Amino acid sequence: MYDLLIQNGSVVDGTGSKAYLADVAAVDEEIVAIGKLEGDATRIVDAKGMVVSPGFIDLHTHSDLSFLLDPTAQSKIRQGVTFELAGNCGGSYGAPLEGGALESFKKRVSEYPDNLDVNWKDFGGYLDTIQSAGTTLNLAVQVGHGTVRSCVLGMDSRAPDRDEMNRMKELISESIELGAMGFSTGLFYAPGSYARLEEVIELASIAADHGVIYSTHMRDEGTQNTGLMVAVSEAIEVGRRTGIKVEISHVKCKGPAVWGMAGNILDLVERSRREGIDVAGDQYPYTASSTGLTGGLFPRWSLVGGREATLARIADNGVRGRMLED
Ligand SMILES: [Zn+2]
């Protein structure tokens, strides 16, 4: 007697082998048989004409707030996604929350009619809140460098002093101990873009000590500042200097000037792997990309000081002109 019998589906088992017609049986949420199955089951599902496969892992999401607003996660579940890694590109909006990060999270939450009560400060409180909301899929969250920097330095474009650096290290260490499963940067975005490589290395070494991964939205994916290949080298350098596993997020060649460079990226990644650096990358399964309005259009100097300061710059004709030029 099975608990669940899924019949007549086209099974794609994730091993790389071709799809085949089979029934799948489970007892106590564990698959116990695959093949032409007879026998009774508490629940029988006819999957004729449908695919039966393991749940998809979505390694790159920004659903940090989504599960608090809609824990049923219909848009993901209905695509077959059963595991998400959030907290990418330097942004772990839900935690840790203090200073500028708390302010902008409250602002973000206030855009929704849900009256979400933000009554936590650390990663433990955040994950507990998600858990008790009853999330339908498995979720892992990374602690974001941009969020941590915003906790301590707000939107200042400068290096941290020793105390600020120590506070950022504490926040990262504490977040991982409370359940964060990685450390991410978004060096393309403010305030991540205000950090130099030395800062990233010092912070990533804390994550390395805890044995979690480092994912990075690189400083440049095209020709907007350092250039694509310098940015790839920077990502790899973090792995070389700290020993951390590096995941280059959404690898791409953004803009006609770098089209055709994919081979160069792969060569550099492969050479680094041979050198012993554990570097990998992921890609969108589509050819478009998306980003926020400030990330896509605003020069980073115009974001210094945060939202109010940026709005004041927009209101100033002269400064707005310079923003448009840049
Ligand atoms: Zn990104």
From TrEMBL:
<dbReference type="InterPro" id="IPR032466">
    <property type="entry name" value="Metal_Hydrolase"/>
</dbReference>
<dbReference type="GO" id="GO:0005829">
    <property type="term" value="C:cytosol"/>
</dbReference>
<dbReference type="GO" id="GO:0016812">
    <property type="term" value="F:hydrolase activity, acting on carbon-nitrogen (but not peptide) bonds, in cyclic amides"/>
</dbReference>
<dbReference type="Pfam" id="PF07969">
    <property type="entry name" value="Amidohydro_3"/>
</dbReference>
<dbReference type="InterPro" id="IPR011059">
    <property type="entry name" value="Metal-dep_hydrolase_composite"/>
</dbReference>
<protein>
    <recommendedName>
        <fullName>Amidohydrolase 3 domain-containing protein</fullName>
    </recommendedName>
</protein>
<dbReference type="InterPro" id="IPR050378">
    <property type="entry name" value="Metallo-dep_Hydrolases_sf"/>
</dbReference>
<dbReference type="InterPro" id="IPR013108">
    <property type="entry name" value="Amidohydro_3"/>
</dbReference>
<feature type="domain" description="Amidohydrolase 3">
    <location>
        <begin position="43"/>
        <end position="193"/>
    </location>
</feature>
